[in-house]
User: Which sequence fits this backbone?
């Protein structure tokens, strides 16, 4: 009876429990009026209003409303076209809106206009949905109320209003406990439980396959990715991140640093927003200093950057009201469109020149190495006043310890910002790469990314550059359905045979930096690092004298005499072996490791064992 009563009580508590509604201790004063949102809503026909607008952004509608409003905009304006771009794992249709005064509704037609192409996406993390309604409002403002019709004289827009549709439709009151509305939201992950904003390089999901086709056929000049971030409470209602150091090719990086960011910050501040770069305060010698975060191409804005295209990662703050967040997204997109429309050719010239400068490095041994990974610089910084909120500890009866609570008191910190990168991994750009035909899966992924390739007509045998590996290790646990690898690649030159029908990847193409990021094994999001080439490292023929040629697995009674013979024939190797024994007691005590050492030095070890199958080409002689 007691057990039944307890279960009944728990069920009653669960049924009655309302979701927690966290809130920020500070809202920007201008957020209450949210003047730009109000003006857009006032000028809209009633049938084009979103559920967000109708509920003061306390609710968000199912995806069906997004599709319906998109088609209503298409019917209301001949400048709007709704495209079906793919399907989700659960079978839902993905759409994109193209907005063009020239009715340039295909990539080829858009390219002929010589206008800037701006791509916008929302809801890649579907619980972070505040970009969805504002982008539909902005399309309405361009084409129906025509408040911003002038943008269409200078730009074409490609808009994915909801990227992670299955996650969007997985609605619950409890999915975002750290977020202040809307009342019900979707999830960060898709139906396969994968995070789409980690999938840009490995492309495991059907949503990403669809996205890559859009991005790599439209070739946008600028990308916007709308998110909501959580973390410490602060005065800022929106933060942003962009590649702006050696993580994006010049002069696209110069355009971001010198033209775009200063103008964006100035315009947002004039509208009453508090805006900061994305990052966090850290304690340095007892002082709080602000550090940016260094991202890799698995994320949207760095994927765009390795294609020499600026991307604005928008992160409104989860503790601000949903209306404040919608206002932030609306205005940061509006001001971005204003800045680009004021000088579209400046942006287009910058990205085209970035393409040209990066391609010029291909095959030039005197050219600078290309950045592949880095860390935030602890030495380089410049002054910053950071607008935080004060906090104080309180005793929690739940944890039994002190817990942080933010107050409404402003905490304006005179400090420094660390927003530069120290390079940790780089590589010179060869003329091209050769991929053996047996590794066609590598070529398939490159093709998905829009990479140009050609097939070899005959066998090729030459001395090529490639890599051999030391200290290959699988990461602990899983990452997005993969076990990632760490390794130490060593550049070598060896005579290698490539069969006819292998894949040649020339680097004098626009996506040369993307190719480096995928094929250089030391790059953090390379195919090798993501575990997409594990047969190279973990298989019967991957090393240790196990190539099916009577090696270690044949038994010590056969392998030991072979090793002893090699030892006798090569006294210099014996000295090297004895030095290894003396220096490494663990190795000395491992009989199998000792035998493997000799097989690795002998002809009995297959030449391809431990060698990267993809080669770097500096001269194309075929």
Assistant:
């Amino acid at each position: 009876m007691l057990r039944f009563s307890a279960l009944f009580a728990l069920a009653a508590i669960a049924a009655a429990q309302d979701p927690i509604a966290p809130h920020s201790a500070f809202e920007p004063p201008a957020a209450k009026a949210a003047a730009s949102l109000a003006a857009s809503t006032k000028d809209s026909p009633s049938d084009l209003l979103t559920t967000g607008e109708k509920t003061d952004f306390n609710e968000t509608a199912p995806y069906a409303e997004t599709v319906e409003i998109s088609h209503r905009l298409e019917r209301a304006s001949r400048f709007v076209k709704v495209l079906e771009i793919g399907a989700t794992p659960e079978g839902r249709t993905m759409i994109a809106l193209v907005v063009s005064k020239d009715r340039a509704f295909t990539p080829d037609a858009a390219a002929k206009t010589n206008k800037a192409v701006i791509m916008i996406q929302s809801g890649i993390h579907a619980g972070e949905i505040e970009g969805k309604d504002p982008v539909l409002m902005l399309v309405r403002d361009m084409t129906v109320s025509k408040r911003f019709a002038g943008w269409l004289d200078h730009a074409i827009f490609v808009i994915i209003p909801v990227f992670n549709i299955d996650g969007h439709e997985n609605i619950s009151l409890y999915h975002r406990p750290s977020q202040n509305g809307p009342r019900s939201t979707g999830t960060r992950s898709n139906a396969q439980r994968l995070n789409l904003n980690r999938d840009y390089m490995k492309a495991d999901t059907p949503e990403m396959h669809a996205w890559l086709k859009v991005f790599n056929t439209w070739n946008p000049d600028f990308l916007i990715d709308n998110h909501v971030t959580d973390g410490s409470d602060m005065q800022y209602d929106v933060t942003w991140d962009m590649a702006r150091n050696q993580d994006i090719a010049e002069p696209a990086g110069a355009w971001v640093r010198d033209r775009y960011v200063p103008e964006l910050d100035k315009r947002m501040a004039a509208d009453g927003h508090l805006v900061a770069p994305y990052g966090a305060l850290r304690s340095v010698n007892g002082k709080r200093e602000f550090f940016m975060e260094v991202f890799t191409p698995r994320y949207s804005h760095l994927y765009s950057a390795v294609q020499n295209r600026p991307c604005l990662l928008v992160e409104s703050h989860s503790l601000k009201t949903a209306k404040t967040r919608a206002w932030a997204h609306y205005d940061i997109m509006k001001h971005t469109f204003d800045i680009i429309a004021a000088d579209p050719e400046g942006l287009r010239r910058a990205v085209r020149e970035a393409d040209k400068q990066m391609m010029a490095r291909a095959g030039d041994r005197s050219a600078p190495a290309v950045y592949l990974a880095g860390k935030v610089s602890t030495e380089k910084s410049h002054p910053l006043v950071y607008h935080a909120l004060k906090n104080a500890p309180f005793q929690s009866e739940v944890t039994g310890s002190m817990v942080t609570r933010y107050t409404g008191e402003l905490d304006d910190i005179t400090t420094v910002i660390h927003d530069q990168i120290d390079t940790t991994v780089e590589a010179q750009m060869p003329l091209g790469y050769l991929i053996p035909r047996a590794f066609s899966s590598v070529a398939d992924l490159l093709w998905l990314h829009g990479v140009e390739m050609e097939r070899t007509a005959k066998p090729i045998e030459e001395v090529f550059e490639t890599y051999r590996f030391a200290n290959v290790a699988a990461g602990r646990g899983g990452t997005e359905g993969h076990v990632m690898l760490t390794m130490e690649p060593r550049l070598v030159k060896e005579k290698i045979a490539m069969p006819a029908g292998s894949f040649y990847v020339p680097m004098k193409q626009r996506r040369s930096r993307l190719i480096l990021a995928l094929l250089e094994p030391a790059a953090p999001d390379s195919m090798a690092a993501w575990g997409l080439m594990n047969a190279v490292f973990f298989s019967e023929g991957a090393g240790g004298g196990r190539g099916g040629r009577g090696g270690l697995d044949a038994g010590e009674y056969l392998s030991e005499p072979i090793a002893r013979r090699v030892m006798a024939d090569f006294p210099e190797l014996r000295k090297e072996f004895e030095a290894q024994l003396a220096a490494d007691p663990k190795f000395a005590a491992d009989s199998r490791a000792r035998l493997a050492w000799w097989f690795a030095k002998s002809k009995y070890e297959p030449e391809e064992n431990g060698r990267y199958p993809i080669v770097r080409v500096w001269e194309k002689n075929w």
